[in-house]
Design goal:
The complex is a heterodimer of chains A (226) and B (304). Chain A has 226 residues and is α/β, with parallel strands linked by helices. Chain A is built from seven helices and ten strands. In chain A, helix 3 crosses helix 4, helix 3 packs parallel to helix 5 and helix 4 packs across helix 5. Chain B has a four-stranded antiparallel β-sheet. In chain B, helix 2 runs antiparallel to helix 7. Classes of the chains: A alpha/beta (226), B alpha+beta (304). Bound molecules: adenosine-5'-triphosphate (ATP) and magnesium ion.
Chain lengths: 226, 304
């Protein structure tokens, strides 16, 4: 599903965010990526959605070599990957419904269908009653869930969540992790970036550990080792 | 395709309303820019027109002595034609002069009666000289004054124009060029201002652009609503400024007309009608282009 071969990302003037990264994530897997701040976790996500280009190496997503992706291909790629961003990236002047619908409106889905899909994803994240609220009127946990809901609208084959438990108390964090697990059980490949020791250990799934831009461990049924 | 088009319009409309203050300020500034540009263009037109109208009106008439041989007159005329600044010379025969004189003084029986008493025509022929440009008048006057045939000329009618010519000569050149330079500078400033205003209004929404891009919107789907929104701003501002300008113009026109009495006999409305395309058409087209350019540049900056 996702394959990184000898990928490096260099930021001018002197920062190697990623160095010689190799991994392969199969369809339907649940993978956690852990590492200290600045280890390069978000950089991996930015490369997967072609927000940045790798300096070296090759990236293949679902059989599609996106290493030198053309501009016109980028929207198509992004509609196949759901991303929950570290900073949510919700529009503060739009309601929950509009924020989610927005991702669909850009693609020419009918209004009827949009209402239906938004209803479905909000049901998955259990936020149906907040559909007409604005982001400022929601708690962080709720915002996280809106963000997850939006990531799901295109029925992506891969869901990537960057620190979705970042600012949450343990109970809320646990909720989110369970939600991601549920989504994974429906067949979606999930890539979870996190700092949260409990979550990682609880999941008992594959863990890739990064340190200063390099992979220092990649284990099935891994544990939080930092 | 159609559904996308509908959404682009919808987004543009929503943006417009949600950013109501920014929209309003943008429109107000656009109105001011439109208004001043209209005023500058219009004043330039009026100025140019009055100058050329004056130039047309100012001519030099040579009233010749009565009863001169036609040959001598032709000779004089030919000599004048050699003078470089002369555009044309109109010949008015003695008979024509008399007819004209009669019709001019129709309502003064005393004059008509005394004319009737005369057996021969007291008037001579007239040569009306038109210059190519206002700057040529002095050359022509000089030339006329130095002609050897002074005895043929009864009197020259240019004195009444002399001051006017002198003044016009002095101002017209400066006025036109000064006006053009000032207008150009001003128009350039407004263009830069509006260009940056559009960029600013997009800058305030850079986060939105970034998000749209990240959730899989195509470049054009992102660009178009901003473009359309800009067109809405411009159209609204244009209509309002047009209405204001028309009113203002109705008010200003009489003053201009007194001031430049010699100019033309168009009414304020007819004037605007005649120059509608030149003033307002070019304006809105120019701003549309400006909008396409600046919103394109601005949006693309945030489309990594
Ligand atoms: N646009 C950029 N320009 C230069 N350096 C960058 C840029 N983005 C990231 N970096 C650097 O790349 C390295 C990895 O950044 P990254 O965002 O991937 O870290 P992270 O593992 O996600 O950290 P965190 O847990 O704090 O989110 C950091 O040293 C960061 O300073
Ligand atoms: Mg990060």
């Amino acid at each position: 599903m996702i394959k990184f071969s000898n990928v490096s990302k260099f930021y001018y003037p002197d920062n190697y965010a990623l160095r010689d990264i190799n991994f392969r994530i199969k369809s339907g897997e649940f993978v956690s990526i852990v590492g200290q701040s600045g280890a390069g976790k978000s950089t991996i996500i930015r490369l997967i959605i072609a927000e940045e280009q790798a300096t070296e190496g090759k990236i293949v997503i679902g059989g599609w070599d996106i290493t030198n992706i053309r501009r016109r291909g980028i929207p198509i790629l992004r509609r196949q990957i759901g991303v929950v961003f570290q900073d949510f990236k919700l529009l503060s002047k739009r309601t929950v419904f509009e924020n989610i619908a927005f991702a669909l409106e850009t693609t020419g889905v009918t209004t009827q269908k949009i209402k239906q899909i938004v209803g479905q994803v909000l049901k998955i994240v259990n936020l149906k009653e907040k559909i007409n609220r604005f982001p400022d009127e929601l708690s962080i946990g709720e915002i996280q869930r809106v963000s997850i809901a939006r990531a799901l609208v295109h029925r992506p084959k891969v869901l990537i969540a960057d620190e979705p438990t970042g600012n949450l108390d343990p109970i809320n964090a646990q909720d989110i992790i369970n939600l991601l697990k549920k989504i994974n059980e429906f067949g979606t490949t999930v890539l979870l970036v996190t700092h949260n020791r409990e979550s990682v250990n609880y999941l008992k799934a594959r863990v890739i550990t990064l340190e200063k831009g390099r992979i220092i461990s990649d284990r099935q049924q891994g544990r939080y080792i930092l | 395709m159609f559904i996308n088009f509908k959404r682009i319009i919808k987004f543009a409309g929503q943006d417009f309303l949600r950013n109501f203050w920014l929209s309003s300020i943008t429109i107000i500034i656009l109105i001011m820019a439109f208004f001043s540009i209209s005023l500058l263009i219009t004043l330039n037109i009026v100025l140019k027109q009055s100058i050329s109208a004056i130039e047309k009106k100012v001519d030099i008439s040579l009233y010749l002595e009565p009863n001169i041989d036609q040959e001598k007159i032709n000779n004089l005329k030919n000599q004048l034609l050699v003078c470089p600044g002369i555009e044309e010379i109109k010949y008015i025969s003695a008979e024509e002069s008399l007819t004209e004189f009669r019709s001019e003084h129709q309502d003064k029986p005393l004059i008509i009666e005394s004319l009737d008493e005369l057996t021969n025509n007291p008037l001579g022929a007239t040569l009306v000289i038109k210059a190519k440009s206002i700057n040529d008048y002095f050359t022509i006057l000089n030339y006329v004054n130095n002609l050897p045939e002074q005895e043929l000329i009864q009197h020259k009618d240019y004195l009444q124009h002399k001051i006017l010519i002198q003044q016009l000569n002095k101002i017209s050149y400066h006025l036109v060029y000064f006006g053009l330079i000032i207008s150009s500078i001003f128009i350039l400033i407004s263009i830069l201002f509006v260009f940056n205003l559009i960029r600013l209004s997009i800058y305030t929404r850079r986060k939105e652009i970034e998000i749209m891009h990240l959730v899989g919107a195509t470049d054009w789907f992102i660009r178009l609503p901003y473009l359309v929104e800009g067109l809405i701003h411009i159209t609204i501002a244009w209509i309002i400024s047009f209405l204001f300008f028309t009113l203002f113009w109705q008010w200003l026109f009489p003053y201009l007309n007194i001031f430049l009495e010699i100019s033309n006999d168009l009414s304020a409305t007819a004037f605007l009608q005649r120059y509608f395309g030149l003033i307002f058409g070019i304006e809105i087209l120019g701003f549309f282009l400006l909008n396409i350019l600046s919103s394109g540049v601005a949006v693309d900056k945030y489309l990594k």
